[in-house]
Structure formats: C-alpha cells, structure tokens
Write a structure and sequence with these properties.
The protein is α/β, with parallel strands linked by helices. Helices cover 35% and strands 19% of the residues. The protein has a single domain, classed as TIM Barrel. It is built from 10 helices and 13 strands.
C-alpha cells in the first residue's frame, strides 16, 4: 500500500528532519510504498496572516535534502502551472490541491512531466465527476480511456479528503471510495477529512480523534493508500495542527490498518 506522510507545511529544516527521521520505519517496511509529504507553500490558508511556508526555492532545497539523506520518495503540492517544471525536478509525485482539482492548465502541466500525479477530490465535487480530472491527465499522456488500470499504468491517483457538509464541517461518504476506484487508484486522506474549515476564527479547526476511525473504515471499504499529516507536537504545528496525528500514534494506526486490509 502507498503511504503519504509528513507535516502539513515545511516549518523549518530542523523540524522537517526531526519528523523525517521518525518516519524511517515505513521506508524500511516492504509492505509499504512510502512517500514523504510536506508543502513548500500553503496558498489557500484561511487568513492572510497565516503561515504559508518557506517558499518554493527553500522548500525544494529542503525536500531534496530529505531525498538525499533518507532515500525517501517525496510528494508536494503545486498551485500554479508555472511551478510544475521546477517542482518536478525534485519530487516523485505532484499533488493537486482539492480546491484546484478542476484546473485544466495545472493538471495538464503535471501530466506533461514523468511524475506521478495525486489529484485531491474537491470538497465541492460529486465523486463521479472526478473522472474528468483523471481524463485530463490521461489524455495528455496519450490515453483516451478512463479506467483504474489505465490510471495505474500512467501514475494517476485520486485522493478522498471529504466533502463540505454545511458550513464549517467536512464529512466522508465512503461510497466515494468505491465510485472513484472505477477511475483510478484511491488514496484516503484521513487527516484532512476531519477538518472543520474556518472554525477557529480565521483558522481551520479539526478533530484528530476521529482520524483512526475514518482510516479504519476506509481500509475496510478498500483503498490503495493512505495520507496522514503528522507532527511530533501538533499543538505547535503552524498549519493544520488540530487534524494532525502525532508521530508516536501513527505506527499503532498503520498496524491496525494493515490488519484490516489483510482481512
């Protein structure tokens, strides 16, 4: 199974390496295809005053150092098509943020690289409509038919992160995992699925206590991978702390998920 894990945003080189060191167990697990995840820029923060990251140049330098020092594959977000060529020189997987999952130029730019593409389902999108986002990437790569097999062959993934449910809440319809797997391999983003957008007065809240339950449910339904944002101390994280899972709790959860998948 694929596992994407790391802190939401690159806060500092020291923090990144502290977290990366703690994730070595997954790199060494033959049953896991591990990717280290962190963002050089969070371009869709609720408030202008919120921490966004260290910027593309410094962020990519740190991600390259993580690759060099730990041998990890790396995934990060891209927000604009002009960023893609430089980011693709470093990362192994390009991630499309949920709010941008229909942005044709961004999808095409990612498809024009030789990197895997992880498309996060928008909180506002009907799951069957995600086939069109997949097709934008597949057509650019010379494939005209949407299917799980074709997406797998061309390195295209869909990522479920929940749907808006009224104001300030996200829910996960587990049917979406089944529906979207008709179009592409599916990665379940358990930590963003417990977000409560805008609930902290200019910041996004969340309930990380629900992460193990949603992840276990997704494992029971059947998915191809998992995404967990994690931190040694979510209470001091500069982005998405309320929905992150602590590093020392992640291993227990991964063990549980693997057992459910075996069943």
């Amino acid at each position: 199974m694929k596992l994407l894990a790391g802190p939401c945003v690159i806060e500092s080189e020291a923090n990144i390496f502290k977290i990366a060191k703690s994730l070595e167990v997954y790199q060494n697990d033959p049953s896991i295809d591990f990717y280290f995840k962190s963002s050089f820029d969070k371009a869709n923060r609720t408030s202008l005053d919120s921490f966004r990251g260290l910027g593309m140049d410094e962020g990519l330098r740190i991600l390259q150092k993580v690759k060099d020092d730990f041998g990890y594959k790396v995934v990060t977000d891209v927000h604009e098509s002009h960023q893609v060529p430089a980011v693709a020189e470093v990362v192994d997987m390009l991630q499309i943020p949920a709010f941008l999952c229909r942005q044709t130029d961004l999808l095409v730019a990612c498809a024009q690289t030789d990197k895997e593409v992880n498309i996060k389902k928008g909180q506002f999108i009907n799951p069957p409509d995600m086939k069109h986002s997949v097709l934008k990437v597949l057509k650019t790569r010379g494939c005209d038919e949407v299917s799980y097999e074709n997406a797998q062959k061309h390195g295209v993934y869909l990522c479920e992160r929940g749907s808006s449910f009224g104001y300030g809440n996200i829910v996960v319809d587990m049917r979406s995992l089944v529906i979207m797997r008709n179009f592409a391999p599916v990665i379940f983003d358990a930590t963003h699925s417990v977000q409560m957008p805008g609930s902290l007065g200019g910041k996004t809240g969340g309930d990380s206590s629900m992460v193990p339950y949603l992840a276990s449910a997704a494992a029971a339904v059947g998915v191809d991978g998992f995404f967990f944002e994690t931190h040694f101390d979510p209470s001091i994280a500069l982005s998405d702390g309320p929905n992150m899972i602590k590093l020392d709790e992640l291993e227990k959860l991964i063990t549980k998920i693997k057992k459910i998948r075996e069943i």
